[in-house]
Design a protein that fits this description.
Order of helices and strands: EEEEEHHEEHHH
Helix content: 40-55%
Radius of gyration: 28 Å
Oligomer: single chain
Shape: rod-shaped
Number of strands: 7
Strand order of the largest sheet: 1-2-3-4
Structural class: alpha+beta
Largest sheet: 4 strands, antiparallel
Amino acid sequence: MKLFQKQIFQSKAFEVKNDTIVIKTKNFSNSKEWTVKLENIGDQIIIDKKSKIGRYILSLFFLAFVIFFLTTAFLADEPIKYGSVLFIAIFYLVFTTLIFLSPDKSEIKLVGGLSELSFLLTDREEADKFIKTLIERSRKLILDKYGKVDSDLPEDIMIGQLNWLKNREILSEQEYDERKTEYKNRKLMN
């Protein structure tokens, strides 16, 4: 299972391998790669959406500055060196373009576990589908690891694990009661 996201100068790649997820990020200045165990991810989704208004206002301000600068330079009564005027205008125009095209910092964050995952908000539908599948696989992995009834475990540990699974809403109240009863019955048989 893979997800690749790209946004102007940055990219993120997620690949699930067995019980881990490999994350690779690249941007203009660096690249990183790390792994996270699926059982350590959370199941709470936070949408962190940044406004673009500030970026657009700043871009318009610098664009107005360029226009004002060029107009003033060409309407001046004294002779001006046009090379330096054009250099300054081009510099500010490039600066304005970089501000306008800077990557959007809006993200979908998966929190609530030991590790937080952050996804770009470029293709929301694809990211939502990947996150949903990721949460399902994580829950199944946790349930398989901690939800099996083992009569060899001390009662406080087994009931503690079942409580933890119930509190994380991996087990329903009914499933919790069934497994607790099954544990106690097995314990009596041994």
